[in-house]
Write a structure and sequence with these properties.
CATH topology of the largest domain in chain B: MetI-like fold
Number of strands of chain B: 2
CATH class of the largest domain in chain B: Mainly Alpha
Helix content of chain A: 10-25%
Oligomer: heterodimer
Strand content of chain B: under 5%
Structural class of chain A: alpha+beta
Number of domains of chain A: 2
InterPro entries (chain B): MetI-like (IPR000515), MetI-like_sf (IPR035906)
Number of helices of chain A: 8
Keywords (chain B): Cell membrane, Membrane, Transmembrane, Transmembrane helix, Transport
Strand order of the largest sheet of chain B: 1-2
Radius of gyration of chain A: 24 Å
CATH superfamily of the largest domain in chain B: MetI-like
Number of strands of chain A: 20
Strand order of the largest sheet of chain A: 6-7-8-3-9-10
Radius of gyration of chain B: 31 Å
Distance between the termini of chain A: 44 Å
Distance between the termini of chain B: 25 Å
Protein name (chain B): Spermidine/putrescine transport system permease protein
Order of helices and strands of chain A: EEEHEEEHHHEHEHEEHHEEEEEEEEEE
Structural class of chain B: mainly alpha
CATH class of the largest domain in chain A: Alpha Beta
Membrane topology (chain B): Multi-pass membrane protein
CATH architecture of the largest domain in chain B: Orthogonal Bundle
Number of domains of chain B: 3
CATH superfamily of the largest domain in chain A: P-loop containing nucleotide triphosphate hydrolases
Largest interface: A-B, 26 and 17 residues
Number of helices of chain B: 16
Family (chain B): Belongs to the binding-protein-dependent transport system permease family. CysTW subfamily.
């Protein structure tokens, strides 16, 4: 099986008056594990259904392997879709499920059942062919759905939050499993999820989507360390958000007057002197003591033990700062009054924009 | 009963149990029992009994005449004796005539004439045909209704199904009679278009053909086919249809492999209901054929009851129909691999 690249060229989708996807350009490389991450209702499923052919874009083109997909139905595209609820055929056996796509292509029975066996082996389910989907566990059903989709030898596999129905342990296990299967078959995976853990753990690259628009397309590390917009910054991982006024601006460094004092940070967007801005610091980038450029005096309000790390809720000038520090003897007995500090590189300054959580 | 009492308390439990018993009695045991009992006996009435009585009365009149003319007292006494004998004989015969003795046996079932048996078989065959036609007509309708959503669905349901069924069944059948009659709507339209001339009796005799009954019957019972199918089709996960399409299946294959297997219990219920109703339908064939298109078995049952006044024979006919229909349904369920449990779902 060979992966193909997927390109969206100014694709926009409207349902009546409402815009589900704003004009979007996106290039997904062949053989890539690509995730589209966003809150529910952001248009990610619509985008996926457009690639699979269930929805025709209102404007723009979808190209798969360089070929324009306009007017081609889901059955004519080199894609296969794995549904959120898997949509296995409950009345067929597992092997028949897997072989269904081949049956539709007119392959002889003996041949297609043999192929189904091979695919079930690929997903470590050999010997389950005669069972009904209802007799399998959630994770096994998951793998049947993958085998069924792979049977038609798609160049692009589309996955619509297929792990959301599983419990946490199984979900984490299936992440690595999916990644391993993708490595083995080598085709393009496009994975839709609202779970940032899934997206960051599995993907080569992630697109963060909000309100029908792509906010940022980058690999997981970049996304986490260098979020391009306030939305991405707050949607991916935890963030301390402070509102303030830009008091000084030099090259890539800005000084922002916030309720907790004047803070220096890196500029991440078009801001101007005297205007309002958002300052963001990740909880794990704030340290105890006065080591960094920015120092804040705060009072310890609460201490939540998370196991390997400890979340400290600190109050400073009416604001709550969350600080995450590694667990250890030094954080067992902390004084009431703390000094917090972080560097210029740890604070990011954005123009005012939409946040992920209100 | 014990668990029922624990769940609801003794008074309420006995009320529930009482209702259940009453239900079984009133709906199943009493009517069926009465019918079966009726079919198992007959009254031995000799056909010549009234003739014999008539003849005896004649004899009495003659003897009375002879007796008037006779003067010999010894002979007169002989006449009196013979008169008394005849009158006693009449009394016993008349008692037999008004209340013939009951005999139990299976004769009512074995006495069916060849013609009636032919009508019986033909009725079953016609009912099957009606069921098959109704299935073909209803499946697409049920599919559209079940997969439509929101206000559109309500409109389709209302206009296509509920409104026609708010009209009384007899009225609807009569409406079809008017449409298909010699000088009915269709023939009228054909005349208006110049194809036929009604005044020259050039009409198309739709009503002399069994298909008129089929048409009216499908129209009458279509709802019983549609609703069970809609119910099961509504429970089909639409993602399955999309998944099948995404995997490259044609529309035909999607129906054959995914949708119809899922709808099978609904199809079975719809077919059973339509089959039972059409096999036992009286009004539709009676009105539509008006004696011109061949009887259905239900009409024979009616005649046994109300024209031959032979309730025992009528009951036997009715029971035979019931038994054959039930056996047939069980056979169909076997063939389609649908269990009672699937249907209950």
């Amino acid at each position: 099986m060979r992966g193909k690249d997927v390109r969206l060229d100014q694709v926009s989708i409207r349902f009546g008056d409402s815009t589900a996807v704003q004009p979007t350009d996106l290039a997904i490389h062949a053989g890539e594990f690509f995730s589209i991450l966003g809150p529910s209702g952001c248009g990610k499923t619509t985008l996926l259904r457009t690639i699979s052919g269930f929805i025709e874009p209102t404007a723009g083109r979808v190209l798969i392997g360089g070929e324009d997909m306009a007017g081609k139905g889901p059955n004519e595209r080199p894609t296969a879709l794995i549904f959120q609820n898997l949509a296995l055929f409950p009345l067929m056996s597992v092997a028949e499920n897997v072989a269904f796509g081949l049956e539709a292509r007119g392959m002889r029975k003996a041949e297609r059942l043999k192929r189904a066996q091979e695919l079930l082996e690929l997903v470590a389910l050999s010997g389950y062919g005669d069972k009904k989907p209802a007799d399998l566990s959630g994770g096994q059903r998951q793998r049947v759905a993958i085998a069924r989709a792979l049977a038609v030898e798609p160049a692009v596999l589309l996955l619509d939050e297929p792990l959301s129905a599983l419990d946490l342990k199984l979900r984490q296990h299936m992440r690595s499993e999916l990644r391993a299967i993708q490595k083995r078959v080598g085709i393009t995976f496009i994975y839709i999820t609202h779970d940032q853990g899934e997206a960051l753990a599995m993907s080569d690259r992630v697109a963060v989507m909000s309100r029908g628009k792509l906010e940022q397309v980058a690999d997981a590390d970049t996304l986490y360390a260098e979020p391009a917009t306030p939305f991405v910054a707050t949607f991916v991982g935890e963030q301390n958000v402070l509102r303030g006024t830009v008091a000084g601006l030099a090259d890539t460094v800005a000084m922002v007057d916030t309720p907790i004092g004047r803070i220096e940070g890196r500029v991440k967007g078009p801001i101007r002197l005297g205007e309002e801005a958002l300052l963001m610091v990740r909880p794990e980038r704030i340290g105890l003591g006065s080591g960094g450029t920015n120092t804040v005096a705060a009072r310890l309000a609460a201490r939540n033990l998370e196991g390997p790390s400890v979340h400290l809720h600190c109050a400073a000038a009416g604001q709550t700062l969350i600080v995450t520090v590694p667990n250890g003897p030094s954080v067992r007995d902390l004084p009431e009054e703390l000094t917090l500090s972080f560097g210029i590189d740890d604070a990011l300054v954005y123009p005012v924009g939409a946040l992920a959580h209100g | 009963m014990g668990s029922l009492a624990r769940a609801y308390g003794r008074p309420l439990a006995s009320v529930i149990a009482g209702i259940a018993v009453a239900w079984v009695l009133v709906l199943i045991l009493v009517p069926l029992g009465a019918m079966v009992e009726q079919s198992l006996w007959w009254r031995e009435s000799k056909g010549d009994i009234s003739l014999t009585i008539d003849r005896l009365y004649n004899d009495i009149s003659l003897i009375e005449l002879d007796r008037e003319a006779e003067t010999d007292p010894a002979k007169k006494a002989a006449f009196d004796q013979s008169l008394a004998d005849k009158q006693a004989e009449i009394a016993t015969l008349e008692a037999q005539e008004t209340n013939p003795p009951k005999t139990y046996g299976l004769a009512n079932f074995t006495r069916m004439s060849g013609l009636h048996f032919y009508i019986f078989v033909r009725t079953i065959f016609y009912a099957l045909l009606v069921t098959a036609l109704a299935l073909v007509v209803c499946y697409p309708v049920a599919y559209v209704v079940a997969l439509a959503s929101g206000p559109r669905k309500a409109v389709i349901l209302m206009v296509a199904l509920i409104v026609p069924y708010a009209i009384n069944e007899l009225l609807r059948v009569y409406a079809w009679l008017m449409i298909l009659d010699y000088r009915g709507v269709i023939n009228g339209v054909l005349q208006w278009m110049g194809f036929i001339d009604l005044d020259a009796r050039e009409w198309i005799p739709f009503l002399e053909n069994p298909s008129a009954v089929f048409l009216a019957m499908i129209y009458t019972y279509v709802l019983f086919m549609v609703f069970p199918m809609v119910n099961t089709l509504e429970t089909l996960d639409r993602n399955q249809i999309e998944a099948a399409r995404d995997l490259g299946a044609s529309t035909f294959r999607i129906h054959r492999r995914v949708i119809i297997p899922h709808a099978k219990p609904g199809i079975a219920v719809g077919c059973i209901m339509t089959f039972m109703l059409s096999a036992g339908s009286y009004s539709v064939p009676a009105i539509m054929t008006r004696g011109q298109g061949g009887d259905w078995f239900s009409q024979l049952v009616y005649r046994q009851f109300y024209e031959s006044n032979n309730w025992n024979m009528g009951s036997a006919y009715a029971v035979s129909l019931l038994v054959v229909c039930t056996a047939f349904i069980l056979l169909m369920m076997r063939l389609f691999g649908v269990g009672l449990r699937d249907i209950a779902k």
